[in-house]
Specification:
Blueprint (H helix, E strand, L loop, with lengths): L1 H30 L7 H17 L7 H31 L16 H6 L3 H32 L6 H9 L6 H24 L9 H29 L3 H9 L4 H12 L1 H16 L3 H6 L6 E3 L2 E3 L6 H11 L3 H32 L1
Antiparallel strand pairs: 1-2
Helix pairs in contact: 1-2, 3-14, 5-6, 5-8, 5-11, 6-8, 8-11, 9-10, 11-14, 13-14
Length: 354
């Protein structure tokens, strides 16, 4: 028995060593720019051999932990490679003069200081905050209203649910161009024929901003509605019946019973709306491309409808200033993280109170 365990341990250690050496060799070949074609195969084989040795390691006490690590590794590996490492590299590049290809100078926090001297960036930040506040309220109110409508005893409820949700299935770029056509042709023709007002909603920054809000609500309210429908259908029917017997009206039942019982759903919907509104990019680019004249901080700006995500994109791609764009993205991440944590804590506290 001991001989068999010793043999398994020796085999496990050999596989672990071979796996580590193969993985390190593949990484060294890749980092040194080797043209050997089997680097990828060697890396994959090294990882598989390493985990085979880890699985065969003769221990009962930690065997379940080892198996859990093996099954979690693909997900953790992808998360590290696609999120953690790029974020760390982004932090580094934001302190340089990186142009997307090479860097020649380390500038420290210079990019972060310069962005706050840029009136266009500050306007985009302010516009984004206003957009988030307005849409957090309107999308949730409209989505909840549609959910109440679609959970009532009316005919063709399934049709209305599908009709309200379909706009969310359309891509933001396509959606933006569709509504751009509507605003520049249908709405413009109607306003000219009715009021002799020959100007599109997208021609000015204030009406253009209103157009983005309308399109965003039209797209996202149906998605939020489906989540609210799920929450409303979990409210026990016997509680609703008891309130009706006690003489509660439909309005009192909604605000006193249903709303408190879907507090967790409200938290989820508020969080999703906050995240989505902050990261608004595709509709903004396709509908107005950030254009619109505005006077801000004594400066004439041509990016009156440009929100933060589009500003970051234009800084990095259009202006070829990747280091500044990365610095703005890092600040964007910090702001979004702080606001999200505060929002979730406030919502959770209200859940307890309700």
């Amino acid at each position: 028995m001991e001989d068999g365990r010793s043999a398994n341990k020796a085999m496990s250690q050999a596989l672990l060593l071979i796996g580590i050496l193969s993985t390190l060799t593949a990484l060294i070949l890749d980092f040194t720019g080797s043209r050997l074609f089997f680097r990828g195969e060697l890396l994959l084989a090294g990882i598989i051999v390493f985990f085979a040795g880890l699985y065969l390691f003769p221990t009962k006490k930690h065997h379940r932990t080892i198996v859990n690590i093996i099954f979690l590794f693909p997900l953790l590996f992808c998360f590290v490679v696609t999120v953690i490492i790029p974020f760390g590299l982004g932090l580094f590049y934001s302190t340089t003069d990186w142009n997307g290809i090479r860097m020649t100078e380390f500038v420290g926090i210079g990019n972060y200081l310069n962005m706050f001297n840029e009136a266009g960036f500050l306007w985009s930040l302010l516009l984004t905050v206003m957009f988030v506040i307005v849409n957090m309220v309107l999308v949730n109110v409209i989505g909840l209203g549609l959910a109440v409508l679609c959970t009532s005893k009316m005919k063709a409820v399934g049709f209305f649910r599908a009709a309200f949700f379909i706009p969310n299935l359309i891509g933001g770029i396509v959606l933006g161009y569709i509504w751009q056509f509507i605003f520049n042709n249908v709405v413009l023709k109607w306003t000219f024929d009715t009021f002799e007002y020959n100007s599109s909603l997208l021609s000015k920054y204030n009406t253009g901003f209103l157009a983005i809000i309308l399109v965003y609500i039209w797209q996202y309210a149906g998605y939020i509605m489906m989540i609210y429908i799920t929450g409303l259908t979990t409210v026990p029917s016997d509680v609703i019946e008891a309130s009706a017997i006690d003489g509660a009206t439909a309005v009192q039942t909604f605000f006193r019973i249903k709303l408190p019982m879907i507090a967790s759903t409200i938290t989820v919907c508020t969080f999703l709306t906050l995240q989505s509104a902050f990261k608004q990019f595709d509709v903004n680019m396709a509908l107005t491309n950030g254009t619109g004249s505005v006077n801000f901080m004594g400066q004439y700006l041509s990016n009156g409808t440009q929100m933060l995500a589009l500003n970051i994109y234009n800084t990095a791609i259009t202006k070829n200033n990747y280091a500044m764009g990365q610095a703005k993205a890092v600040l964007f991440f910090i702001i979004l993280s702080i606001v999200s944590v505060i929002q979730v804590r406030i919502s959770n506290k209200r859940e307890v109170e309700m």
